[in-house]
C-alpha cells in the first residue's frame, strides 16, 4: 500500500488531507512525492518560522540529540533553563512552564489563573474568553473556545467559561460586572476564527475592564507569536501587559513545544506538584526553540512587515479580492471565488495556502525569499482572478 492508502486505512479520520505527500523541503520550498516543488505559504500552520530543514536549527537540534534526548523533569538540563531565561528576557515575564502544544500551554494558563483565584480566596474562578476564539482541542480548551460548533458531541464541559463578543461594545464590561471572574483570555488576532484582529475599541474596553475588576490578562499567542505579526508577540502591537502569555507552534521551529509565560502577579502560583508534563521542557525541543527564538531579531521582524506590505499591495483592489485582514505574515483574504477553490487551484500550480473559515489564509515562513514570495503571489493573483 502507498502512503495515502495506509493513511486512510489506519489513521483516525479527523483530517481531510490535501492530495499531496510532502517528502522533503528547504526553506519555503517543499517537494512532493511526485517530485513537484511547492512554494509554502502555510509553514505547517504557522510552525516552520524558518521554513523546512533550516540548517542552523538542524545543527542545534542534532547537537542536543547526540548529547541526550530526554531526561524527565526530575533533572536539570541547560536548553530548557536557557530557553526560559531568553523568553523572560524578551518579554519581561518572570517564569515559564513548558509543555508540548498550544492547547497544553493554554491548560497551564487556565490552571494558573484558577489557582491564583483560589489562593486569593475571593471566590473568583470564571474566565472570560471571546466569541469566535480558538484555544485548542482538549476538553478544557474546547470549553474556553467561544465557538458553538466545537462544543457539539463532546460535552459535558467543565464550567466557568463565559464568552464576550469583541464586536459588541460593552459586552465584556457587562459580563465582568456580573462578578466571579478571575481572567480574560484573548488571541490578539483570532486565527482559526477567520484571521480577525481585535477591534481597537475592544482593546480599550479590555484595558478598562481589567483595571476596574482587577482581572488577569491571558494572551494566547499560539498562532500570532514568535515574529509572525512583525513583533515578537502579537500583544506588543497593542501595548498590553499580559499576566500570562501562551506560545507554541512557531517557537519550536517544527518540533513540539508549548510554553506558558507567567508574569509578576502569577509567578509564584504554581508550586511543586501543582502541574507537570513528562515531555515538557524536552532538551531537544528546547535546543531547537532556543535557536529559533534567538534569531527572531529586529531585522527579521522588519522584513515581516515589508513582506506583508508587498502581499497587501499586490492583492488590494483586485476584482477577485473582497478584503484583506491580519497583521504581518498572518493574513486572511476574502475572495470572490470560494476559498476552497482558490486553495485547490493554488496547490495544482505549486503554491500551498490555507483556509480560515471562509478566507484564504497565508502564514508563510518568515524567511521566505523575495523571489519565492513574488512567484507565489503572482500565482495566487492569477488563481483569484479566474
Ligand atoms: C490561538 C490558538 N490557540 C491554541 C491552539 C492549539 O494549539 P495546538 O494545536 O498546538 O494544541 C491553536 C491551534 O491552531 C491556536 O491557533
Give your account of this protein's structure:
This protein is of the alpha/beta class and 386 residues long. The chain has 2 domains: 3-54 and 298-385, Aspartate Aminotransferase, domain 1; 56-295, 3-Layer(aba) Sandwich (Aspartate Aminotransferase, domain 2), CATH 3.40.640. It has helices at 3-10, 43-46, 55-67, 78-91, 102-120, 139-144, 171-177, 200-213, 283-295, 298-315, 339-348, 370-385, and strands at residues 22-26, 29-32, 37-40, 95-99, 126-130, 161-164, 181-186, 189-190, 196-197, 216-220, 244-247, 258-262, 321-327, 330-335, 351-352, 354-356, 359-362. The strands form 4 sheets. A 7-stranded mixed beta sheet has the order 4-12-11-10-7-5-6, with helices on both faces. Helix 7 (171-177) packs parallel to helix 8. The longest helix is centred in the first third of the chain and has 19 residues, at 102-120. The protein is globular and about 60 Å long. The protein starts with a helix and ends with a helix. Bound molecules: pyridoxal-5'-phosphate (PLP).
